[in-house]
Structure formats: C-alpha cells, structure tokens
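Example protein was shown:

_____
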Amino acid sequence: MAGHREGWPAARFLAAIAEHELAGRAHRWSFDFDAVPMISKAQVMAMAAGDSWLAKGANVLMFGPPGGGRSHLAAAIGLTLIENGWPVLFTRTTDLVQRLQVARRELQLEAAIAKLDKFDLIILDDLAYVTKDQAETSVLFELISARYERRSIMITVNQPFGEWNKVFPDPAMTLAAVDRLVHHATIFEMNVESYRRRTAMEAKRKRGRPAAYATIKNTPLIDAERQTAAEENPASGNHDDNVTDAAT
C-alpha cells in the first residue's frame, strides 16, 4: 500500500501491482533451456498447459544429477498448471512418505491416499532420498498403484531405474513401481553439469586479480610502473621498495 500512501492515483497503483505480478511470474518461469539442450522448450510449454496428459493420468519422470534444474523445472510446470486451474501438490518425497506412514499406523492409509485424489498432479521431488531402511516405505508403492492410470505423478530423481532398489523394500516391488510409472510417461534426461557448480566456477573466474595488481617478475604492476618512473626521473622520489604482492 506504499504507493497509495504516497498519493499515487488508484489506476496507476493497480497497474504497478499488475506489472509486478507479471514480472514475478516471468521470473518464476525463467529456465535456461540453452543449459539443458536435451529438453525441448516447446514440449515443456505444451506440458504446462496440462490438458491432454493430466486428463489421461500420465506421468513425468525427470532424471539428472543434483543442480541440473530438475526441481526448478518441475516447480515451474506445477506453478503454471495451478495458474491454469489444475490442482497440484509439490512435495519432497520424504515428507509425503512420512505423512503416509503416520496414516498407516493410524489405520488411515487408504483414506489418506484417497484425499490425494483431489490433486490432478502430485510432484514428488527427490525420490532417491527415500530409503528402504525407513519403516513402511511400501506406502510410496501403494500411492503409485492407487494413482495408476487415474491421476498423474511427476518425479524428480538423481538415480537411474537400476538404483531404485534402494528405495523400495524388495526387487519385485521396485519392478512393479517402475512398470506403473513408465507405462504412460514422458521421461526427461537432464544429464548436465550442476548449475550451482557452473555458476560458482564462473564467479570464481570473474573474481580474478584486477589488472592493477597483475605482477611482473613477482612485482605488482602498479609498483613496477612507479619503479620505472622513478628510474626515469629520480627526483620524483618516495618510491617504497618494501611494497609486496599480497598474493605472494
């Protein structure tokens, strides 16, 4: 309301709010497709509309190393679907598993899974962080089975299918879960260098020593220039021979 207190006309104030919201939406949707060339922007934008695949209960699986943009892209698609009127739940897989474990102990698992039907899409972020040594991890399989061909699931994971036996209690359950998920699924392989690592390395390169402190034979350039000037004009005086390169 700061603009109103400052005396902005109502129309101008509302326009500023609208511009701020539009800018915010654009920022939330920002994704560097050039950094992930194996992902089609057109395909992602079509998926964000949601009409065809959500109506069929199809799934989306996003594979890739940490920092490759999986969660970012999943959240952006989810947010756009919400803005288009689709009910979506974005959750860390471990959080949802814990909630379902509690429901099972209270003999309410079936009801808890049924309540999740109100979401056309559940986004399970970081599947591989669930491990089968946690009690009752089979609740995840029961969720997948209950939604099979009825409601959609989007999963982000940094482990290939061959490593999913670390998530489910036994190989048969792992195979059954994978079979249900991939039957009607779009799979994104986002095998790229970590965005966070790449950004950090670029920042490190940009922080290179300023030109004024470049060295010539272990002498700072700025002092080398002073020394040359002093040699050419001894009367210019006061050259400090004790200045050293802080990096040496």
Summary: The two ends are 55 Å apart (CA to CA).
